[in-house]
Amino acid sequence: MSTATSSRVDVVVVGAGFAGLYALHKFREQGHSVRVFEAAPEMGGTWYFNRYPGARCDVESLDYCYSFSDELQQEWTWSEKYASQAEILEYINWVADKLDLRDGITFNTRVLATVLDEDTLTWTVTTDSGEVVTARFVVLATGPLSSPLTPDIPGLDTFAGDVYHTAHWPHGGVDFTGKRVAVIGTGSSGIQSIPLIAEQAVQLYVFQRTPNYSVPAGNRPLTAEEITQAKATYDERRRMSWRSGGGSPHLAHPKLTMEVTPEEREEAFEKRWQLGGVLFSKTFSDQMIDFEANEEARKFYERKIRAVIEDPEVAELLIPNDHPIGTKRICTDTNYFQTFNRPNVELISVRKTPIEAVEATGIVTSQARYDVDALVLATGFDAMTGTLAKIDIVGRGGQRLVDDWTDGPRTYLGLGVDGFPNLFLVSGPGSPAVLANMVLHAEAHINWIADAIGYLDQRELAAIEATTDAVDNWIAECNRRADATLFPRANSWYMGANVPGKPRVFMLFIGGFGAYLDICSEVADAGYKGFDLIAR
Ligand code: FAD
Ligand code: NAP
Q1: 3-state helix, strand, coil in the chain (%, to 5)
Q2: Does residue 448 sit in the same domain as residue 351?
Q3: Residue 219 falls within a domain, yes or no?
Q4: Residue 33 CB contacts under 8 Å (≥ 6 apart), including other chains
Q5: Which CATH number do you get for residue 101?
Q6: Which SUPFAM superfamilies does the annotation name (predicted)?
Q7: Could you tell me the pLDDT band of residue 2, with boundaries at 50, 70 and 90?
Q8: Which of 339, 38, 79, 294 is nearest to 192 (CA)?
Q9: Are residues 408 and 509 in the same domain?
Q10: Do 512 and 494 share a structural domain?
Q11: Are residues 489 and 527 in the same domain?
Q12: pTM summary value
């Protein structure tokens, strides 16, 4: 079915990453006409843009892929425990070809606005190519991490060398051989790329503002036996993932941190450390709730990191001391801390010696000048809301979503917003989103939306719209749950803290992926409790 030129469709989907592609497939299967608009020239979203050296997933490849088709699961074979950006992008394109999705996507086309017609309860979607499409439903699969942030450093635009952002990396790659390079930012993107840039550059300066927790990924090729075993047991792997806290088949230690002896605790942390990756923060189930428990994990972590850094003064700078471990997303790395033992790598604490300016040939801090040929910005994203805010989303009574969200995003389940009937968010604020395996999360959201549309159609209803009460209650519930954890103690992008002026609210549902899915199912089973169902 090709709908690529229709100006009136059942569903407009914005974005062709993991979420938008599955949405196209699912809604087509339901018999709907669908248009997908994608600003980029190709599909893949995150994995199209973030091509920096070392970019790879931090959820295991075998889990970070679509689960809705066993045929896809069985036919695709991942080469590494954590797949590289290139392999993930190849997978996404392979799926799109298998499911015949390309003709439903209009590339190089940015959605500028979507405006509700209250009489017909339809949306008018306008794009930067001048196209105007009317749709009954709009699904915003625009991604939580799709608006890269460029820091406001004086003189940045006067730099005469090459400037790269990790989230807009050149397609042909970059050769830093013989170059003096500065990296600003030590989040997941910086930490993945720094060891590889250091191998090429003649000199690398790493400008760190806040030290981050990073756990060795333990990446390695998957063996043929592992793949055979995983494919034979995929059903169980997925069943565990759907029930889990974060969308992976992980089980925390059965006891709480302080219930076990120090030896058992050490053993549990060591076991998880050897397995590698972000799940270290879930070794015990109370680590993100109980500060004493968190401290045990943090102390173990500190011992591990100090052991691999040769210079104690450098180690001191690299060890976080301002937030509990795991309250910002744990980074995963390959030899990140060891990189600072290299003679060609220097760490500069921007907290101690702030960057004052970028000049044509270098970076000036309060204490020194660093001559560089290339500058890498690993400075993150205006997460969760940044991309949505760039679309003029106008609902009932001319109400704009951005105005509605000035004190922080307001949604019901991270899926719907009062005043915006038949408009759905995917992995929006108020859902677990980036706290979970985002591929399964996208599938769950699209399945829920498809069911809701099916429910309306079966009953010949016109629209579904979150009630204001439901939104208020959901936001209160999200805040209550966040406040019961250690997460609000960090200046994280989960809290909007990385964007000057952004409201300080914890933007996610922290209660766990499985628990969240139960709530979504209960809402649907109760006839979409908390939503108004509007007659034709
Ligand atoms: P995206 O992949 O962000 O796709 C959204 C698309 O919408 C983009 O292509 C964008 O161009 C398009 N778009 C946005 N606005 C418009 C508009 N107005 N008009 C037209 N098109 C528009 N999550 C995990 O669970 N595990 C991981 O290991 C992991 N690793 C990550 C690594 C990096 C470097 C980053 C940045 C994120 C990572 N994430 C990870 C989160 C990741 O964003 C999600 O896993 C997932 O790829 C998001 O898919 P999506 O389709 O929701 O959004
Ligand atoms: P990030 O975590 O927000 O890190 C941005 C870094 O830039 C931080 O160290 C930040 O310091 C620093 N920074 C920002 N502005 C600065 C300035 N003006 N001066 C100095 N430093 C500045 O962004 P990210 O690394 O791109 O990662 C974002 C998210 O994407 C991750 O948390 C994760 O969810 C996802 N991701 C995942 C992977 C993976 O392993 N699969 C890889 C990359 C990204 P402060 O901490 O002080 O703000």
Answers
A1: 35, 20, 45
A2: no
A3: no
A4: 1, 3, 6, 9, 10, 11
A5: 3.50.50.60
A6: FAD/NAD(P)-binding domain
A7: very low
A8: 339
A9: yes
A10: yes
A11: yes
A12: 0.97
Q: What is the largest CA-CA distance in the chain?
A: 71
Q: Compute the distance between CA of residue 41 and CA of residue 423 in angstroms, rounded to an integer.
A: 25
- Asked whether residue 315 falls in the same domain as residue 348, the answer is no
Q: What average pLDDT score do residues 305-325 get?
A: 97
Structural domain count of the chain: 3
Nearest ligand (C-alpha, residue 39): 1
Report yes or no: 341 and 347 within 8 Å, Cβ to Cβ.
no
Ligand 2 pocket test: which of 189, 317, 363 has the largest number of ligand atoms within 8 Å of its C-beta?
189
| Ligand 2 centroid – CA 193 distance (Å) | 12
Estimate to the nearest angstrom the gap between the alpha carbon of 97 and the chain centroid.
25
Q: Which of 403, 439, 56 is nearest to 218 (CA)?
A: 56
Residue where one domain finishes, among candidates 300, 325, 350: 325
Of ligand 2's listed atoms, the one at least distance from the Cα of 166 is 26
- C-alpha distances in Å from residue 151, one per residue of 125, 227, 380, 382, 383: 31, 42, 9, 11, 14
Strands (DSSP E) found in 428-519: 461-466
Tokens of 141: 């699969």
Closest CA to 24 of 146, 141, 126: 141
Residues 6+ apart with CB under 8 A from 69: none
Nearest bound ligand to the CA of residue 329: 2
Listed in order, strand segments (DSSP E) in 185-280 are 203-208, 214-216
Grade residue 341 by pLDDT with cuts at 50, 70 and 90.
very high
Mean pLDDT of the chain: 97
Q: Is 20 in the pocket of ligand 1 (CB under 6 A)?
A: yes
Query: Does any domain span residue 235?
Result: no
Instruction: Give distance in angstroms: CA of 86 to centre of ligand 1.
Output: 15
Q: How far is CA 221 from CA 60, 77, 81, 106, 267, in A?
A: 12, 11, 6, 36, 26
* Residues 331-352, mean pLDDT to the nearest whole number: 97
pLDDT tens-digit readout, 183-199: 999 999 999 999 999 99
Q: What residue type is 14 in one-letter code?
A: V
- Range of 490's domain? 8-147+383-535
Atom 44 of ligand 1: nearest residue by CA position = 438
Q: Are residues 373 and 400 in the same domain?
A: no
Class of residue 391 by CB neighbours under 10 A (exposed 0-12, middle 13-18, buried 19+): buried
Amino acid letter, 297: A
